[in-house]
Amino acid sequence: MQLWFARGSEVSIRQQLVAQVVLGILGDDLAPGQRLPSTRELARRFHLHPNTVSAGYRQLARERWVGQRRGSGVFVRTSKPETPLSSALALDQMIASLFRSARKQGISLPALRAGLRQWLELQPPDHFLLIEPDVELRRIVVADMEQAVSFAVQSCGLEDCSQALEGSIPVVLPNRLETVRKAVSDGTDLLTLRFRSVPSSLGEWLPAPSGTLVSIASRWPDFLKLAHTMLSAAGFHPDSLVSRDARNTNWQRGLNQTAAVICDSATAKDLPAGCRAIPFSLLAESSVDELRRYVEFVSKPIESL
């Protein structure tokens, strides 16, 4: 078992020992049932006071990370405690995982330090950047993102994405991932959004009410096709569905005579008064949650590093 101790630190040697053993168990460096070094062996190897090591082992036993067998020593328990980690220990776990991954990739400690220093000196991103060549789809996804988060959202096509990356969190749709990867520099991290499940989105409409006239409106042709297909499959009669391409002149005419308008988030803003708009978000809830986590991370950086 590899251990490091910083003498003269504000953190006691006992707590350093406890934290490293816990991280070793959480990271599976210490396997269930594995025997830990004896108090005497650990004290001799690292020039520690035996009472300090003994106190650390007793704390680990109280917190149910290890078990003590009389005459046999201290062993890692077969099951991990279910108590939630403290924020400090959770941060330590993330840092330990980073160093473990770097070691497996053959990255030297000086190189890792240099990379961390460079990352921390960078100005944190202040907006999302959606990279999407389809202009109309771009408008829709940007509108969905702006409804989900308070963070600024910008967008661009493939031809100008390299120049627009600075200061951004680049975002792509799943079907564009490989195309965008070829357009940006190597090593650029891309946040991939996921599309919303169509069946879950149609839940409130099932079973389909008979004789109800429903409109479908969007500037994106694929949205019109998808919505028409799925509503028909859900039981709406094709004659009860009115499709309107919002790129055309007078596309809004007569929409307020229908029971509701199925539309994308961008088109919803342009509907005439009196329409019952039912915006269909393209983004999966898991992607919305991920966007919010990114915003929280950027807004509350890990200052203790």
Q: Helix and strand layout, with pairings?
A:
Elements lengths: L12 H14 L12 H8 L3 H13 L3 E4 L3 E4 L10 H18 L4 H13 L5 E5 L3 H14 L3 E5 L4 H4 L3 E5 L4 H7 L7 E2 L5 H5 L11 E5 L2 H13 L7 E5 L14 E4 L1 H4 L8 E3 L5 H15 L6
Parallel strand pairs: 3-4, 3-5, 5-6, 7-8, 7-9, 9-10
Antiparallel strand pairs: 1-2
Walk me through what this model shows:
The protein is of the alpha/beta class and 305 residues long. The protein is built from 12 helices and 10 strands. The chain has helices at 13-26, 39-46, 50-62, 87-104, 109-121, 135-148, 161-164, 177-183, 198-202, 221-233, 265-268, 285-299; strands at 66-69, 73-76, 127-131, 152-156, 168-172, 191-192, 214-218, 241-245, 260-263, 277-279. The strands form 3 sheets. The protein has a 4-stranded parallel beta sheet with strand order 4-3-5-6, covered by helices on one side. α8 (177-183) links the parallel β5 and β6. The longest helix has 18 residues, at 87-104. The radius of gyration is 28 Å and the shape is elongated.
Attribute tags:
305 residues, alpha/beta, elongated
Could you provide a short overview of the structure?
By secondary structure, the protein is an alpha/beta fold. It is built from 12 helices and 10 strands. Helix 1 (13-26) crosses helix 3 and helix 2 (39-46) packs across helix 3 (50-62).
Mean pLDDT: 83
Major β-sheet, in short? 4 strands, parallel
Number of helices: 12
Strand content: 5-15%
Question: Would you tell me the structural class of the helices and strands?
Answer: alpha/beta
Order of helices and strands: HHHEEHHEHEHEHEHEHEEHEH
User: Got a strand count?
Assistant: 10
